[in-house]
Amino acid sequence: MEQEILLSVKNLEVKFDLRGRTLNAIRGISLDLYKGESLAIVGESGSGKSVLVKTFMGLLDANGRITDGEILYNGQDFTKFKTEKEWLAIRGKELAMVLQDPMTSLNPLKTVGFQICEALELHQGLKGAKAKEAAVSILEDVGITEAGRRFSQYPHEFSGGMRQRAVIAIAVACRPKILICDEPTTALDVTIQAQILNLLKDLKAKYDLTTIYITHDLGVVANVADRIAVMYAGDIVEIGKCDEVFYNPRHPYTWALLSSLPQLGVKGENLYSIKGAPPNLFTHIAGDAFAPRNPRALKIDFVKRPPYFDVSPTHKARTWLLDPRAPKVDPPESIRKLRQGVSANG
Amino acid sequence: MAENREPLLQVKNLEVTFGTRRHPFHAVNGVSFDIYEGETFGLVGESGSGKTTIGRSIIRINPVSGGEIRYKNQKISGKISKELDRRLTREIQMIFQDPMASLNERAKVDYIVSEGLYNLGGHLSEAERRDKVDTALTDVGLLPEFASRFPHEFSGGQRQRIGIARALIMQPQFIIADEPISALDVSIRAQVLNLLSDLQKKRGLTYLFIAHDLSVVRFISDRIAVIRKGVLVELAETETLFAHPLHPYTRALLSAIPLPDPQAEKNKKLLVYDPGMHDYSVKKPEWCEMEPGHFVLANEPEIAEYKKALE
């Protein structure tokens, strides 16, 4: 079970300066990314999942800074990078990113082919006919038919799903080691979503990629993720293999996220919904950040931040419920149903 | 159960055409369905299928180029009297997809919610108006003091609640919800869905729920119609549709629903719909009832095939 660690995050803290106040966006995250795996990071908006991966690429906004911790990749520590020049050797070449909205991530004034060639020229030094040849073959790889004709078309001539395919083509054109997909299918239809997820899975094998998916929808990642990290209020509250997180979730927040999926809802009854709002990250959070919204919270949850408890060698969760002294609390009904398989649902 | 109820809204052979006379584009082509009082009717399709266009022609934003729409047995498409128009604006309201884009950034919540009252509320005193705004905000789970704030001070879920309050204040009977939750986070989706169904129970509202995600529609709808390229392909009660979908497009849509279950996902087969599979050159497809309340678009050989599949 020894796997090569590709990227290692150690005790990372990120803060933002906002109107004279400090926002604690990432509160001490440690995470290892293994070579060849696909990791899904799941959380609500504002949980810091996008901020986390932006630190991997040096794309934090100007008012954000890494205050503690390190990000180790290939013997380098990203947090020590000072100049753009250092980042340019990493961005695109080692790590590439696919963003949520293909409408805004493509340049509307340039042909799709030009935008892929741009990446090829910059990172692989290909020019002219050679670059075009390579670009057309990548377009074919991402499932665009008539790639030769599509090469010279503009983004507005592409449909939403095709555009996202084009964005993926640009990202893989530089042959990155790690592909980060930030909500790759949120802006797309359900049918297209399924196709794009399948495409990403195929490309992962073909281009030997390690992938990180970011999403707010747990339902989407069951098919594509090897491991799942659940984020809440700038912290990973539970991490484990896909099956472990779906069939044996331990953190109350993971329970809540899973039970609010409409796929698990029973018609005529109310869907489970998480009460209240995510915590204010401007203030110091004592205890478990999810405690105020958690109907099953223990007293200690409000006082002391729980450490990670191991459920299995690959599965750990940050909740006092796993402490041997904690009272036994059963997960909600719908989670137990999930364990028996929701295949009846579809 | 649907047969003996009175339809609230009837759409008959609806056609909506955009473009010029020379280059017409048929966004909606011969769509017919009834919506009964008190039910939630789901309309599902991909982007560009014409589902939003149908919703917009019901509230008279898009002109109808063929067929008719009847509300409470009265024609509401084409030219109608001024009084009827005012009554419709009051009784039919809409909730939009993107709560970031559908609220006026420069107006306070108080104005946004009561805009309909200013236009159609008759002669309300200031105190009465304030009272109505407070009630509408409380009904959707917001605090009355939010009225003095601006939309940018709210989160996505709260904004969508403001959008719902704005529709509710007119005391409508029929609400068109156009992808009301697709721009929201999963955890907020549940809140908004619950709110919509609570309001329906309390006020006996009728919904037309437009969405692209069948798993959401299944949860909230009594009956579902599937639309593709401006044509309805299948219509049935929710559980019937999920139990035995007939049209290959419906089956493709169902297979695309992401399941929160890794094992099931791994064994899942994704169906891809190819419109070329229908041979409609000889026998034209018709809208026919396969079993009570279950309609599908098919031609004669396909009907025979589907009949077999049902048995």
Describe the model.
The complex is a heterodimer of chains A (346) and B (311). With 346 residues, chain A is of the alpha/beta class. Chain A folds into two domains: 5-225, P-loop containing nucleotide triphosphate hydrolases (Rossmann fold); 230-345, P-loop containing nucleotide triphosphate hydrolases (Rossmann fold, 3-Layer(aba) Sandwich), CATH 3.40.50. Chain A contains twelve helices and twelve strands. In chain A, the strands form two sheets. Chain A has an eight-stranded mixed sheet with strand order 6-7-8-3-9-10-12-11, sandwiched between helices. Chain A has a four-stranded antiparallel sheet with strand order 2-1-4-5, covered by helices on one side. In chain A, helix 4 (112-124) packs across helix 5 (128-141) and helix 7 packs parallel to helix 8 (190-206). The longest helix of chain A is centred in the middle third of the chain and has 17 residues, at 190-206. The radius of gyration of chain A is 21 Å and the shape is globular. Chain A starts with a strand and ends in a 7-residue tail after the last helix. Residues 342-346 of chain A have low confidence and may be disordered. The model of chain B has no long low-confidence stretch (mean pLDDT 89). The longest helix of chain B has 18 residues, at 186-203. Chain B has eleven helices and twelve strands. The radius of gyration of chain B is 21 Å and the shape is globular. Chain B has a single domain (7-310), classed as Rossmann fold (3-Layer(aba) Sandwich). An eight-stranded mixed sheet of chain B has the order 6-7-8-3-9-10-12-11, sandwiched between helices. A four-stranded antiparallel sheet of chain B has the order 2-1-4-5, covered by helices on one side. Chain B is an alpha/beta fold and 311 residues long. Helix content of chain B is 36%, strand content 25%. Chains A and B meet through helix 8, helix 9, helix 10 and helix 11 of A and helix 6, helix 7, helix 9 and helix 10 of B.
